[in-house]
Amino acid sequence: MRDAERLREEIGTWRGLERRADDLLELSELAGDDPALAAEVDAEAVALESDYDSLRTALLFSGEYDDRNALLTISAGAGGTEATDWAQMLLRMYLRWAERHRFATEIVDQTEGEEVGLKSVTVAIDGRGAYGYLRAERGVHRLVRISPFDSQRRRQTTFALIEVLPEVENDVEVEIDPDDLRIDTYRSTGHGGQNVNKTDSAVRITHLPTGIVAQSQNERSQVQNKDTAMKLLRARLLERALEEREAQIAALRGEHVEAGWGHQIRSYVLHPYQMVKDLRTEHETSNTAAVLDGDLDAFMRAELERVATAGSDGEQAGA
Questions:
Q1: pLDDT tens column, 128-162
Q2: Is the pTM of this model over 0.70?
Q3: Distance, CA of 164 to CA of 279 (rounded, Å)
Q4: Using alpha carbons only, how large is the chain's radius of gyration in Å?
């Protein structure tokens, strides 16, 4: 019933878009030399194109968990202060992207840099299709700029890793034996209110069979932090299971499975020129300010189309 309702809603949305296009065509024919009406036509055309692009991107959500909420983790690479500042910049970028889509966000865990920025941060992004969009962002992101922390104003290169997981329901997909868990509590650090450094409210959960660790320290109570950490642990266990399944299928097909977290997917160059370029799709823009302010949809769409096309080609080759 839920799937049927979702399909009815999707069909209704496309039909509504078609009606808007027909109305816009009629309106454009009436506009003639009327500047006010012509301006209205132009504004509606821009809005229609934007809505169409969003719906077209949604068609690329073919994964089992693409309609889920997402858990996004940003980890600073080597580079000290420069790297932790880059992680902070990426956090702002993705928060602004989520705001553009009216997705709710919550920082569930973070470790601050020694001087500025963040060593790592995990954000829950709630909204239909959040994971479907953000899975296109997984990988290493590279920044090139004149470092504001270098007194000699030299150009610096630094990296950060983006990991994205689908949020997993409490009672589905992943079974966790309580005997397989080690739960540790500790005092929160950083911002968090009057309980910080006074009570052991932060929670770290270790899944003993796999060694996977999830932690949360940003909630007010130990119970809330435990619930959040369990949510993150389920997501990481699900990701592990999916990776193992994909590796088995790839081995049967004779495909190469690359170990580790791979290579950089995108470069953000702020000096000596302005350019953001995705190395997988070749999509690029010189409007670096817009990208760092959350204008990421074109990059996501290009990668999702690349993956969908590769999958389609693979199926045709197999046939």
A1: 889 999 999 998 999 999 988 887 888 888 999 99
A2: no
A3: 19
A4: 23
